[in-house]
Structure formats: C-alpha cells, structure tokens
What we know:
By secondary structure, the protein is of the alpha/beta class. Helix content is 42%, strand content 15%. It has helices at 17-24, 38-44, 46-54, 69-81, 95-106, 125-130, 137-151, 163-170, 197-203, 212-215, 220-230; strands at residues 8-11, 33-36, 59-65, 86-90, 113-117, 155-157, 175-178, 207-210.
Amino acid sequence: MSAAKPPILIAVDRPDVAGALALVDRLDPALCRLKIGLELFTAAGPAAVEALQGRGFEVFLDLKFHDIPNTVAGACRSAAALGVWMINVHAGGGPRMLAAAAEAVASARRRPILVGVTVLTSMDQAELAAVGVAADPAAQVLRLARCCADAGLDGVVCSPLEIAPLRAALGRGFTLVTPGIRGPGDAQGDQRRTLAPAAALAAGADYLVIGRPITAAADPAAALQSILASLPAPAPC
C-alpha cells in the first residue's frame, strides 16, 4: 500500500462523464483514487478515464475481464495503454487466462497493478451453490487467490471477511483490494460480506473500495474526511 496517499478507492458509478465530473470535482486527488466500472465505461469509454485522470486522479479500471486468454491479454494491453493505475480480471477465467493477462501488462510502458476478482461481495453461500460451486465463499476465494498468485498477478479483490486468511496464506506482498466496506450506519445495499473501514485495514487490506457511503452523501468530501478520520494512523516508515 502506498504510504503517500490514503487507501480509499471511490467507486464513480455514474452514467455519464458530466455526472462523474460533478462528483469528483468535490473531491481531492491527494486523498483518494477513483474506480471506474462498467456503467461509466460502457457509457463513455476511454474518454471517461481521460477526463478523471485529467483532474489529477489515479484510476482503477474495474472491467473484470473474463474471456479466452488471447482476448483478455489484448484487453489488458489496451487498458494499460490508457495509463490507468490498476486493472482487474476475473480469477474464474483460469490459470492460462490469468497468466496471459500478467504477461500482457508486464510489457506495458506504464505497468498497472493487476488484480484478480475472486468471489463478488454480493454473493453468499446460496448463490455460489446455485452456480455449481460447493465450496463456501472463504474457501473459493482462497483457491482463486492462489491461482492468481501462481499466475503472477499482484493481488486480488476480495470481501473484507477473507482478508485475514488471505494475508496469512499469501503474505504481505500480495495486494488485497476490498469492496463491501460499510460503516455501522450505512445501508448494506446489494453487499453481503461487509466490514467497517478501520476493521478492514486492521485485518490486512491494502485498498478499500467505497461507493455509496461517499458518493450518495450530501457532502461527498465530508463523508470521505469522516472515513479517513476513522482510520488508524499509517505505520512509520
């Protein structure tokens, strides 16, 4: 985790660039990074990335690539060419797809952090069973995370509940990006496996993805400051 910037990645889930800019213009790029997902990228494409980077923000391009190895490799190269800070792929694509993604970003002029999505934080045991996965979420996350590590990815996206076992199994050098961050007064929405920001960091998360608790607040900047104030002070270098 970078010591120079707080570990907050704000999910900019907006249907157009104008709405995204109206939100991020109320935020300080020194205090957070931004996550662009499927909604905004489908609506506006690379122009959305360029607009937010033009405001001084580092961008996590959250498109969760999942296809045959050659296609995912090409998508990763295109994403890296946008100059984004982080990209992701679905770990469920398997070892050959993951290795192709890692090889593709390794040759980028500005290599992004590459992480694998394990089990979506909206899924629970019943939903995994419905798609044929007999393992509980924690076991499935660990299995997929090991695949990512073996393929040369930098880390994974996991729920807060899997942080501690992943940290114990894969060590401090493996990056853990954690959505499903909710405080005591926040609505759960469609999240199922959640934890408060300070607790997630204490468990070993590197980066916290936070959307609606900040973006739906009347004052997003104040909401971000409140979350930052709740976090433990970074350890001295």
